[in-house]
Hints:
Layout: E1 6-15, E2 18-23, E3 34-35, E4 38-40, H1 47-59, E5 62-75, E6 79-90, E7 100-104, H2 106-111, H3 116-119, H4 122-143, E8 160-161
Parallel strand pairs: 1-6
Antiparallel strand pairs: 1-2, 1-4, 2-3, 2-7, 5-6, 5-8
Amino acid sequence: MMLVMQEVVAAAIFRNGRLLLAQRTRPPELAGMWELPGGKVEPGETPAQSLRRELREELGVEANAGDRIGVDVPLPGDMVLRAYLARLESGEPAALDHAELRWVDAAELTAIDLVPNDRRWLDDLLAELAAGACAGRVAAAATARAPHEAPCADASPAGRRPGPAASA
């Protein structure tokens, strides 16, 4: 008999070289800590549909799920936590279900009090931030007709995996 695990989805939303984090209000042992927004996949939903619903409920935005990022994180009760890259389509994120939202850069991400489960993705999230920063420098260099900066060549995201399970 194959065990079917309940999936919990988390959204890695990047903008302008920053990652969106949400500050938890509950449970008491995690209150005040920071996480990627998301939640449980409901029966009949795909992970992409769930992420879209969760981001609408928690942040008041419309977003689309993309590739998976990072490793599967086993949770108690036959659940697994998976992170997906997500792209905002409309709306500005608001803390509807969290104490606060914050856009963080790489230095802030390494210093912030992340929930332990999300910490498993730290290297992957930092790689995405580095790749995004490089993309911004490359775009600015192209606009200014300046040569590409060599350090960006190493900043390819390591933990990305195509997310067919996230397809709507």
